[in-house]
Amino acid sequence: MGIKTTPRVEVYFGGPPTDRTENKFLARLEADLYRLGQDAVIFANFLVGPKSQQIDALVATETGALLVEIKGYGSPVRGALNGAWSQRMPDGTRRSLGSRNPYHQASDGRFAVADLIKTQLKRDGLPALDGLVCLYPSPPSGTDLPTGDFKAWIGGYDRALELLEKRRIHPLALDDWRTLARSLNLEPREQTYASAERVVIDDYCRRYGELAGVLTGPYAPVELRLDDCLLNLSTVGDLLRDGSHLQIVGPSGCGKSALLSRLGQDANTGRFAPIPVSARMFTGDLGSLMKRGLASATGKHLSEFLRAADVTGVVIVLLIDGFNECPTNFQNDLLKALLAARLRYGVQIVLTSQHPVDTPVDLDEVVLELPQPSPDHTRAIVEARLDRPLSLDELPALEIVRTANDAAVLAEVIRTPHAADGRHALYSAFARRRIGDAGESHGVGRGLRNLATHMRQEFHQHPASGGRLTSHRSNLAVVERPRRDLKAHPRFRPLGGGRRSHSLSARPLR
Q: For residue 11, which of 21, 26, 28 has the smallest C-alpha distance?
């Protein structure tokens, strides 16, 4: 049995890489080549031929090669194999993308490289080489373009991988491509790669991962619904890696924030850099919230971090938690700020909300529904947090759990000595944890105690009522005070659909 060796991917530059989309394409391509176990030679940002044709990228494997013209269009594009292409702008107008047709750029580049192969290696280069106009990461929704032809194809990043997997009839050896790199005076990446920027990204991702691991804790797998399909966390991660923006929609307490944090951890691979943003704190300045999200894992200024991501091709993923908690008068401003960040910095967005959010076409998102957990899943959440199965004596405690948030609170209660010794102790400890210290400061604890006292008095004073509360006008003031205390609490959800981030308890207070 042979020994599996680590693949070798060599990158040669004609000039320092400066285009954000090209950097992201190269970073993703290199990661995928390693994942697929493919040895490869990559040329980037170089000139070829008597007319100094500029080539964005050329990737060669042992089975073939692909010349790539990389385009990072953020909105729909329309065009044909001849003539100028145009792009639809956010305001609905169309903008010409210049007189040079991208299809001809790719096909002309392919022929120029084929001529170089013939000159330097005395071989016909066309059979060894495909061409592609790559709309990275994928053609924007609403794009109207042909698929290309044998001279050059048109498609997204997935099309690039398909063409690389196809075995050419007469592929060149990788040593031949190294010879061509020398003839073009291309420099190996070790001499040109901006290692300082890579260090900035790697240090941030390491610290972010360490902090998220401590704060998030154990996680119980969930299934999300996309139309009629159920997706697991791995599939959702694939959507993110493919360049999709995501919305995670579900009721209060279902676990959206925990899922968002887990997606951030999974994306934190060095190819993506997640930045957490709390939507409820947005008052018009997205940059200040991004700085706040960065501050826990790096001392670098936001502009310095964005430049490092640009140079290294790392995709910034904004994790927008609780869009519905953003002040209503700022929600449109937040969407505009996210669109601007997308167009200027190429960020991807994962957003949580209790309700689907209408986003601009350039932020067209995959909407994933996260329901309240099933009984089996609530048990899995509690056991994951406890890091052990529930005992037979502890299982009945699951009856008070209605949401994923309840399950996390119950796990904390069970870990507390004697907190679950009996039904009264369990409910009392659960309610105290559920309300939290903020509840006492808002008078919720006092309100509940007053309500309990009033109920106890009613039971004693009116035994003939069968244990029911009477509605004497003299008692209204006693009841109204606890209700006012409860309504003052930020977690209180009034009957009739009030929009708060969390309900006070599993069942509404009446």
A: 26
